[in-house]
């Protein structure tokens, strides 16, 4: 069993790090924290250096000032890389973390080795946009756990919820314990920034994977395909019968997809380095 002790950057970002090899950064979704990545940390750390951190306003990290934009969240990741003295890394972002990963790719392309966007949003329909705006208003009025039961129903299969009540209860508690202002600042970005610099996505020139679950109602397969069409050479993976929280519900399945991508990207990088040398 891998035992990790959280560390902290000078700016106040809480993170976990383990393993050896090329660095892989994991960014969680809104309302969650770095602990969601337990299955991926175990599965990837045998071959890669894996770093999971708490986004601004989440877990044990610093709160974002009111009005912080996506660049502020990308800057948090940049500060983490600088603290760890990592010139480049592959970034894996889940849901809201996928928006942060996209922003990082656009603002700091020289620091990016590869990009994976899991169960994230792009080009919401009017109905989807109205729904997430309504949930933002509910969170503003009633706090971070205003939508917890509906969120858990969207995120997990009924079978998984029934078989893992303690884990579901723990995630419900995580949602409820979020800092209200940090959560709301983040959720407002999640609700409104799905088209963030969409016309610039063609500038991303690293190996890229866009993946989601076949049954993910908020981060749909169509969103994944549309996003991948904007990024040159991006791969798409739609995981059969999976819902939103597939990294937690099906870690082995997700890890297989991630390792296939990471290993292929690493081989491509090694070949290019050999040619250059």
TrEMBL record:
Membrane-spanning ranges: none
Keyword field: Hydrolase
Molecular-function GO terms, alphabetical: hydrolase activity
SUPFAM superfamilies per UniProt: alpha/beta-Hydrolases (SSF53474)
Top-level taxon in the UniProt lineage: Bacteria
AB hydrolase-1 domain residues: 23-249
Gene3D superfamilies, per the entry: alpha/beta hydrolase (3.40.50.1820)
Name the UniProt record assigns to this protein: Alpha/beta fold hydrolase
